[in-house]
Specification:
The chain has 173 residues and is α+β, with helices and mostly antiparallel strands. The protein is built from three helices and ten strands. It has two domains: 30 residues, no CATH class; 135 residues, Nucleoside Triphosphate Pyrophosphohydrolase (Alpha-Beta Complex). Helix content is 21%, strand content 45%. A hairpin with an 8-residue loop joins strand 8 and strand 9. Helix 2 crosses helix 3. The C terminus is likely disordered.
């Protein structure tokens, strides 16, 4: 593979692979794995972020998440990101599922954790982050997906996954 672009958070590499007698050219976005956290409070209340995304030029609602640092385990990254972005620490952190975000372009995996037994502390946002935290009911979050207030795919997938388990007789917390 040949690196054709190297940036601060990711690079792009180009390669070729032979499969079933075909030679296939491809480009891969090389970036760290991601920890995604669904912070659960009492009475089906969750924490959600209102996060400014410069690429979009606007604030969006999403679950706390962040890249794993080199050598960091997914659960360590989840604890770190939860504390940095929300100020909360979790007594219990449970890995629910792992998924590729864009398997046509990246090997990056998203590790989805449910955080419960939350204790409030202080946020430690990165210098380029503008985030505020909201407490909302899981039902309201699902409504925000349907009304296109939540359009972040990792958040949509995790909220729908959680709600399906929670409200169909299987409590996953």
């Amino acid at each position: 593979m040949k690196v054709s672009y190297k940036g601060k958070d990711f690079s792009v590499a180009e390669g070729r692979i032979r499969k079933n007698g075909k030679e296939i050219a491809y480009a891969e976005v090389v970036e760290p794995d991601v920890a995604v956290i669904l912070p659960i409070l009492e009475n089906d209340t969750i924490l959600i972020e209102r996060n400014f995304r410069p690429v979009l030029g606007k604030f969006i609602y999403e679950l706390p998440a962040g890249h794993l640092n080199r050598g960091e385990k997914p659960a360590e990254a989840a604890k770190r990101e939860l504390a940095e972005e929300t100020g909360y620490r979790a007594k219990t952190l449970k890995l629910e599922f792992v998924a590729y975000s864009t398997p046509g372009r990246s090997k990056s995996k998203f590790f989805h954790f449910v955080a419960s037994g939350l204790c409030k502390g202080n946020t430690h946002l990165d210098k380029d982050e503008i985030i505020s935290i909201r407490r909302i009911k899981i039902g309201k979050a699902l409504g925000m997906i349907r009304s296109k207030q939540i359009m972040d795919e990792k958040s949509i997938a995790f909220l729908e996954y959680y709600a399906r388990g929670k409200f169909h007789g299987r409590d996953i917390v």
